[in-house]
Amino acid sequence: MRQELMSLPKTLADDVAKNLVMVARLLDAEPEEAYAYSRVALRLASRVAAVREAAGFASYVTERYSEALTEFRASRRMTGLADLWPVMADCERGLGRPERALEMAGAPEVKQLDKAGQIEMRLVAAGARSDMEEFDAAVVTLECSELGSNSVQPWTARLRYAYADALIGAGRADEAREWFAKAAEADQDGSTNAAERLAQIDGIEFVDALDPDVEIDDEAQVETAGDTGDTEDDDTEFAEGDGEDYYEDDDEEDEEEGVVTPSDETKRD
């Protein structure tokens, strides 16, 4: 990002950088404020890929999926990288187009992703299957070597949680309980509510013991909110699709925005 901003006049680059810092700082806690800062950065430097990406994430977390998709597409065209492919597919889900998300899950771009990106793509594809009430297919999509690995990675808890949730949809509650427990065990940073889902299955109610408005029944099974209780790569393709066709509808939009792609520069030379 720093190198991209260096192409701007110094004063402008400083202003853009300040807005991007605020986007990153507020994205989780105050997403609407982050979105406002992203729009300022976008007005100042719409031809910078990092700005388009930041604006995309700010739109994504505030559920402005159409805007997010536009920004992610622009950033990808500028960089030629596939890193944003999973979140772009999830935007398609947010727009009510799970079938398009599945097409993207089978596109060549998925092979360009690192392991974390491929796991993210699995999660999106499984979510799309669930959106279409194809719960058995969602279960199969998530079955991979990383699911049962003893090595806990940043994606482990979310992968196990999604698998348990798909099992619930498929009517396999007993198996789901086991995987919610495994997700809770791996969830070291609270990225899921696996412990709460596990407690619901066991008929345990979570309450805040410090809340004066909460009446605790000594005879009921109650746990405080802080008590969590017990604690080979899969080559199956997600779907068939062609990533090259995904952008055909956006050429006119990019020309209007002034987005310059690597292929455009080649043609001009």
From TrEMBL:
Compositional bias (Acidic residues): 229-258
InterPro entries in the cross-refs: TPR-like_helical_dom_sf
Domain of life: Bacteria
Chain spans, region Disordered: 216-269
Protein name: Tetratricopeptide repeat protein
